[in-house]
Amino acid sequence: MNTAMQTQAARRWLDYTIIAVIAVLAIGMLLPFLWLFSVSFKPVSEAYKLPPTFWPTSLDFSNYAAVLASRVPFLQIYGNSLLIAVVVTVGQLVTCTLAAFAFARLEFRGRDTLFVILLIGLMFPAQVTILPIYLGYAQVGLINQPIGLGLMYLTSSFGVFLMRQFMLSQPKALEEAALMDGAGYLKIFWRISLPQLRPALSALGIITFTQTWNYYFQARVLLGRETSMTLPVAMDVLRGYLGSGSLSLVMAAMSMSILPVVLLFLVAQKFVIEGITMSGIKN
Amino acid sequence: MITASMTAARRPSDLRRIQARTGYLFVLPTSVLYLTFVLAPVILTVILSFAYYDPMLGSRWVGFENFQRFFTDRRSLEILWNTLRFTCFAVTFNVSIGLILALALNRAMPGWLLYFFRLAFFLPVIIAAAFVSIVWSYFFGDDLGVINYFLRVLGLPAVRWLTDASTAMTSIVIMDVWKNTGFFMIIFIAALQGVPKSIMEAAVMDGTPAWRQFFRITLPYISPVVFFCIVYASIGALQVYESIVILTQGGPGDATRSLSILIVEQGFGSFQIGYAAAISVVMTVIILVITAIQQALSRKWVQR
C-alpha cells in the first residue's frame, strides 16, 4: 500500500516535471514570432540593437504605415495573395466534395481505378509539373497573372481523399431514406451530406487557404513581376528594398502577412487538427 | 434536369444508370483539372527529360543524355547528395522529436494548457517557410544574430551558422525541425490515443518498465503511423526549396544547394528545359521508391 502510494506520488512528480519541460520548449518555439512582433514596433534605428527583445515595448504602428507608403505595392501583393487563396479554397471545396461524394456514395464503372489514379497524384511534387505548366502558361499569357497560380490548384487529391474519409465515416441511413422518397442525388448531396460535413468543410477550407497562402516555389516561378507577386515571394524582395537598416519595416510587413493564417488558426485550431489527424491516421 | 429525371426513377436499373451518370458528372471537374495540371504535365516532363528543348532553334531527342549529364556531373551529384543528406537528417529529427513530444503530451493536463501547447508547437507548421526563414536569417546572423548573442552571454564561442560551409546545412535542419516537428507531434498524439488503454494498464500492473512498454506495446501499435510520417516527411524534405533559398541561397559555394534550386536554376535561369525535366524526374523517382519501400515494409510489419 505504502509503496503503491509512493510510486503514484513519484509518477505525479514525473508528470509535473515533463509538463514544465514542455512548457519551456513551447515558449522557445514561440520566440521567433515574439521577436518578429517586437521588432515590428521598434523605431528603425533600434531594430538591430542587442539584447534582442521578445515583447513589444510600445505599440507604435508607424512601421506598418511606412510599409504601405513604400514603393513596394504591398496592398496589391496582399490582394493577389487573398485572391488566389480565396479562389483556390472555394474551388477545392466545390470540386473535392463533389468528387468525394461520388467516390464514397455512388457506384459507377471505373470508380476505384479513378480514385487510385487520383491518389497517385499525392506523390508528384510541384517540381515535376511546373515546367510544362510554365511553357503552357507562356503560350496562353498566364505568366505573371495571379489567377494562373490559382487555376493550378482548383482541385487536389488530398482534398478529395480527406472529404471521402469524412463521408465514409457518416451514416448512410438518412441518404437512403431520401433516395426512397424519390430525392435526386444532387439534392441528397446538397441537403443531407453537406450539412453533416460542416466540420470537414472547415478543416479542408482552412488547410487549403493556409497552404495556398504559403506557396513559394510555384509562385516564384510563375509570378515574377512585382505587381503579380504573392506575399511569400514579395517578402524576399521587400527585404532587398527595405532590408538594410529597416528591419522593423520588414517585420511589420511580415506581421501583416501572417495575420490571416494566425487568426484562422486561433479561431479554428480544433478543425485544423481534426483534418490533419484524419488524413494522417487513416492513410 | 438531373433532379427531374431522378424523381421519376423507381426501377433499380434506372437508379443504377442515374447513379452512374451522377457519379461521372461529380468527378468530372476534378478529373479534368487533375488531367490538365497533374497527369499531363508529369507525362510531358518525362518526355521533355529525353529531349533538348528549344522552341526557337528546334528541339531534338537526346535519349538518356540529360540523365547521363546529371549522374556524371560532380556539381549535380554534390547537390543530390546535399538533398539526400538534408532529407535523412530532417526526417529523422522531425519524426523522432515529434514522437517524443507526443509521448510527453499524452498525459492528463488542463484543457487550456493543451490548447497552448498545440498552438505553440503547431504555429510554425502553418506559417509559410518563406516567412519564418527570413526571421531565422536574423536569428542565425554572425555578429548581430540573436542566437550568437545568447551564446556570447553564456560565455560560449559564436557560431557562423550560415556562412560556414560545414555548419550551414545543420542550421537549415535546425530551422526545418523547429518548423515541422509539430505536425508529426499532432499526428502521433492522435495515434497514441488509439493504443488500447486496457493493454497499457495491464502492463503497468505487471510492473513493466516504461521503456519496455514503449517498445513492446506502443511502438508496434503505432508503427503504420510512424511509416506514414517517415514517407510524408521524406516527400516534403526532398523538395526543400525556400528555406535554403532565403537562408543561404544554396551557399556557401554549393554546400546547401538542393535539387529544387538546381531545377529552377537550370530550367528557368539557363533555359535548359530538358535537363531540368530530367532532374525533376530523378526527384520523383526517389519519392516513388521511398513510397514503394514504405508500402512493402508496412505490409510486412503490420501483418506480423
UniProtKB/TrEMBL annotation, chain A:
Xref: CDD domains: TM_PBP2
Record carries keyword Transmembrane: yes
PROSITE patterns per the UniProt record, alphabetical: ABC_TM1
Topology of the protein relative to the lipid bilayer: Multi-pass membrane protein
Broad class of the protein's primary localization: membrane
Listed transmembrane segments: 12-37, 82-103, 115-137, 143-163, 247-268
Cellular localisation: Cell membrane
Record's protein name: Sugar ABC transporter permease
InterPro entries: MetI-like, MetI-like_sf
Keywords: Cell membrane, Membrane, Transmembrane, Transmembrane helix, Transport
UniProt similarity note: Belongs to the binding-protein-dependent transport system permease family.
GO aspect biological process, one term: transmembrane transport
Statement: the UniProt record of this protein carries the keyword Cell membrane: yes
One Gene Ontology CC term in the entry: plasma membrane
Record domain ABC transmembrane type-1: where: 78-268
